[in-house]
Amino acid sequence: MATKKYTVTLPEELAEEIRSEVGPGAFSAYVTRAIERQREHDRLGELVARLLEEGGPLTEEEEAAADKEMREIERWFETRESGPRHQADAA
Fold it and tell me: What is the pTM for the complete model shown?
C-alpha cells in the first residue's frame, strides 16, 4: 500500500506515551492501526443503526450472535496487529 506523510496534531502527553510504549519506529504503524479500527467501528455503528431502523430491536438470539461476531472481529484485529506486516514503521 502506498503511503503519504500527513501532519496530525496530537496531545503531547498522549503521543509521548504511545511513542515510549511502541518505540519511535513503530509510531506511524500504531496510529495507522488505530485509525483503521476507528473506521471499522464507525462503519459497524452505521450498519447497526440502519439495521435497527429497518428491522426493529434485536432479539436475544440476535444479540448473542452479534456479541459472538464482535469477539471474533476483535480476535482478528489482535492477530492482524501482531503480524510481521505491522511491526515496521510505515512512514
Answer: 0.58
CA separation for the pair 48, 65 (Å, rounded): 13
> Do residues 27 and 88 lie in contact, with contact meaning Cβ atoms separated by under 8 Å?
no
pLDDT, tens digit, 9 for 90 and up, residues 34-70: 999 999 999 999 998 998 899 898 889 989 999 999 9
One-character DSSP codes across 4-64: --------HHHHHHHHHHH-GGGHHHHHHHHHHHHHHHHHHHHHHHHHHHHH-SPPHHHHH
What is the rounded distance in angstroms from the CA atom of residue 43 to the CA atom of residue 56? 19
